[in-house]
Amino acid sequence: MFEAERRGEVCRLRSPGARWLVTGPEGGYRRADAAYNVSVPEGFDREDPAAYAAERRRAAGFEAPGPGLLTGVKMRHARGARAEGVCVVATAGLSNPVALAGSEAAGGAPDGTTDGRDAGPGTVNLLVGTDRALADGTLATLLATVVETKAAALQAATGFTGTTTDAVAVGCEPGGEPASFAGSSTPVGRATRACVRRAVDAAVEARGSVPDTVAGAEHGAVPAAAPDVFRV
Q: Which of 8, 24, 27, 83 has a CA-to-CA distance to 47 between 20 and 30 Å?
């Protein structure tokens, strides 16, 4: 069973021997006893995020190596939810929100406005674990379920679908009961959707206030491309 714990500015989601799928340039599939969400200080400019996350993890007294997500959000704002063998921990920073071009949430922001290097107090990070055993493709499906739910929950709560720096780590227990599917209508998918929705809602609420529009945010962004639509 996955267990969540916070020590200072580091959150851990742990299950010995877990398999993870993590987004980001240093992500991918891996085995690790835990995954971490780490709050970075204002003005953070390190170019070695994995090494930095490991330093912070060790400084917090967490010995088990594992993937680390970074955010400008203080960990006192982290919120979790648990149901039917699924555990989710979320942080929700929205200084760098993303909205669809032409949407009300865009608020007149110019296309392409973004600064992905500056995390600020931004980034929506999710640590997700299920006690089911999932093959590679099923774990990828669970990641898709998580991201879809995160976007829908944020859209409903804030008008934004995410930020320019969101990250997700999804884990499973290889020794658990196998699950061949993890889409929205499956037991593991339904439980994950419920937990992600509740954790994201609570994490947004914990922040107190969010930007009204992308144009009013410190580092907002809307798509710059103008796609050509075609018939297949």
A: 8
How much is the pLDDT for 57? 97
Q: What percent of the chain has pLDDT over 70?
A: 90
Q: What is the DSSP string of the chain?
A: --EEEEETTEEEEE-TT-EEEE-STT-EEEE-SEEEEEEPPTT---S-HHHHHHHHHHHTT--S---EEEESS-GGG-EEEEETTEEEEEEEE-SSEE--TTSGGGTTPPTT---TT--TT-EEEEEEEESSB--HHHHHHHHHHHHHHHHHHHHHHHS--EETT-EEEEEE-TTS-B-S--STTSHHHHHHHHHHHHHHHHHHHHH----SSSTTSTT-B-----PPP---
Residues of the chain with pLDDT below 70 are 102-104, 106-121, 223-224
Phi-psi region of 221 (alpha: psi -120 to 50; beta: other; left: phi over 0): beta
* pLDDT at residue 109, rounded to an integer: 54
pTM score, whole prediction: 0.91
Distance, in Å, from the CA atom of 146 to the CA atom of 152, rounded to the nearest integer, reads 10
